[in-house]
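Below is how a single chain appears once it has passed through the pipeline. First comes the sequence as given, then the structure the pipeline wrote out for it. We keep one example in the README because the format questions we get most often are answered faster by looking than by reading.
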Amino acid sequence: MNILVIDIGGTNVKIWKTEEAEKTKFPSGKELTPETLLEGVRAATADWPIERISIGYPGEIRNGRPVADPYNLAPGWVDVDFGHEFDRPVRMMNDACMQALGSYEGGKMLYLGLGTGLGTAFIADGVIVPLALGHLKLWEGETFNHYLSRAGLTRHGNKRWRQAVAEASATLRSAFFADYVVLGGGNAEEIKDLPDGCRRGGNHNAYFGGLRMWEDMSEGAMPKLSIVPNAESEIA
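Resulting structure:
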């Protein structure tokens, strides 16, 4: 099955296709509209055989569709029918959930995505729960997102940022009774020594998560598959 995986980040849109771990990307950010996303994806994949599409969206998803515009992109996402626009079956999931799905190795896992902002998700025995932990307070009246985002890394420097990552990981792991924490996102590579109970992820796990979203349709073995998303997430 030829699956196109699209991870819409706050800095870049990353694209993979089945059996190719190397990604294609183009800039995201405040100027990215649904139209420019569609144009960029079509230009990058013009000669790719595509049967199904997985999309990681930086916002809330209900019944397979966005319910609000992301704060870090241009507006206009809520009413877009991506299945119609791509003329392919599409499944959408919150982007942190898609990376979490690609990182999951069983049990109870908390995912912290260290990217443009802080993306969070929790998986317990195959059930994915999207979270918004970045709004909680960490230190000095400031939020987790304030410290753990890319802006927080720039604002506070590597040492303070790594301390915040360690503190957040320990606190949230205890709060969720998580067996382990996966530190993913583009800034996970900035962590030298992993905190106790943590594993390193990365943006590449969005690719595996995108493949797993179609596991129930697979006819053969695919990388690291173990979870099937709710069928309501499909846009025909």
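Residues 81 and 235 are 8 Å apart (CA to CA).

See the next section for the split statistics.
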